[in-house]
Amino acid sequence: MDPDTARQQIRDKIVALAEAIGNEADGLGDDAFIPQLDILDSAATMELIMWLEQTYRISIPDDDLTIENFGTINLIIGYVTKNA
Predict the structure, then answer these.
(1) Measured between alpha carbons, how far is residue 23 from residues 2, 4, 18, 29, 44 in Å?
(2) What domains are defined for the chain?
(3) How confident is the model over 38-71, as pLDDT tens digits?
(4) Distance CA 39, CA 44 (A)
(5) pLDDT per residue over 4-40, tens digit each?
(6) What's the Cα-to-Cα distance from 80 to each of 3, 51, 64, rounded to whole Å?
């Protein structure tokens, strides 16, 4: 897995999910704290997690669903890279 490609794919997915519920997420930075931006609701967040599992063929245990693992794009990349 190429981290730069994955980073862009993840950013694109987050932006698409945000826009689908009427939120603006263009210009989302790699270190932007996603929960603080309030661009995804709980359903969109779960859709993102399911998409990550399917796209990168990983299983994400409930215990790993933390801000430390999924709070920013860079944290998501780190988690996916470590677990893919």
Answers:
(1) 28, 25, 5, 15, 11
(2) 3-83 (1.10.1200.10)
(3) 999 999 999 999 999 999 999 999 999 999 999 9
(4) 9
(5) 999 999 999 999 999 999 999 988 999 999 999 999 9
(6) 9, 12, 11
Tokens matching residue 41: 């609701």
Instruction: Read off the tokens for 19.
Output: 């826009």
Cα angle for residues 23, 26, 31 (degrees, 5° grid): 105
Residue 73 makes CB contacts below 8 A (sequence gap 6+) with 7, 10, 11, 14, 28, 29, 30, 31, 32, 34
